[in-house]
Amino acid sequence: MEQSIKHIWTLLKKDILLEVRQQFSFYGILLYIGATIFVIFLAIEDPDTRVWNGLFWIIQLFVCINAVAKSFLQESQSRMLYFQSVVSPQNFVFAKLLFNSLLMLVMSLLSLLLFSLFMGNPAEQLLAFTGIVFLGGWSLSLVFSFLAAIAAKAQQNAAIMAILGFPLIIPQLIMLIKISDAAFSINAKVPLTPVLMLVALDAMVILLAAILFPYLWKD
Amino acid sequence: MDAYMNKWWWKILAVLLLVYTIIAGLLFDVPRIQILNETIRNLYFHVCMWFAMMILFTISVVHAVKYLRTNNLKSDILSRHYAVVGIVFGLLGYATGTMWASYTWVDPNNPAAASFGAIAREPKLIGAAIALLIYFAYLVLRDSIQDIDKKARISSVYNIFAFAFLFPSIWIIPRLLPSLHPGGDGNPALNPQDIDDRMRLIFYPAVIGWTLLGVWIATLKVRLSILKEKNLLSK
Fold first, then answer.
1. What is the pLDDT of residue B235?
2. What distance in Å separates the CA atoms of residue A109 and residue B24, rounded to the nearest whole number?
3. What's the rounded Cα separation, in Å, for the pair A146 and B105?
4. Which end of chain A, N or C, is more open, meaning fewer C-beta atoms within 10 Å of its C-beta?
5. In this structure, are residues A181 and A53 in contact, taking their beta carbons and an 8 Å threshold?
6. In chain A, what residues touch B158 (CB-CB under 8 Å)?
7. Which domain holds residue B87?
8. Which residue of B has its CA nearest to A202?
9. How many domains in chain B?
């Protein structure tokens, strides 16, 4: 147990270090967020709440695909061979999930800030909405991390992630949009059941990743 | 596996059940309810398609698990063909549903396209669309990989991962969106209060009959592709 925590921590540190040293990908995603939101700002001047909500989550979806796609694709075949000899597949995939979750939390916060800056923030319960954004970003990042692993093994690009992932993510997106709607009105309470269902789905993804990833990573 | 494929009694059973379904389904007495009227007979066809689809997808995922445990390519062939036949049943389910909806849901005063937007938001239709999209994506993923073993392993992993999402989706979405569909927050036709006892006598045999037909089609396809791959599998 203690050793696997150490392994996960080392792998996580390696990913963070790589991110800090090769900043192009981080700024690339940042530019992606900025450019998309700017285009939307020019196209739709003053969206009403429902449009704002829908656009926000669709953008989160695409940001997530772009942010997470790299995580497994960047590992070359020979480096994967090295990882196979030093860590267990579960530790490897947990480190990746953790890193992508952190990355997506940062990206969610940034896109929320940019969205509020350009198009105003209709959320009346700001704290609750920020929490939903974090939860949503986390859910998206977990699902797409695993799909990125599949895409990387199939030697495909991010396009196949979208094909594989869109049908799976529909229920979570609908739930996120519904609970965000509650955070937009001042006296509606954010319903607890969908939040718990999202957390349960996240737990399921982590479990499935632990069970299924060993089959993906050996050639 | 060959043993059960070559048995023929269940094929006769399938034919008998389907003949019974069609004759009894079209001739026997059904309760007359407003709007539904005689279209209720579509229950023996439309609902059975979805039952058969889900059962075939479940068989497909069982074979995917089997493949990961044994690395036997035969399981992968089975998994693929059950998924394909499941898709066919899903499309037939949409086709029969469209006919049913055109008599019950569509407002004759509006152009057809206006009704489509409203009907396409139906939670049951979204759930079915998710299921079909997942298995279309499964086929795309399969065809994008050249290496046979890799193809089998990766697509099995996706099959299991996606299937684990499918059931929560079918369970969650109807609870989030308003619905016109009968059995709005559960499984239509399974609830004892949903259907008349007379219809039950035809409905359950019909489900078994259609599912057996699907399994039959799948086994034929499997046998064909096993013959094609014989050189690979005999090693």
1. 54
2. 61
3. 40
4. N
5. yes
6. 150, 164
7. 2-233
8. B165
9. 1
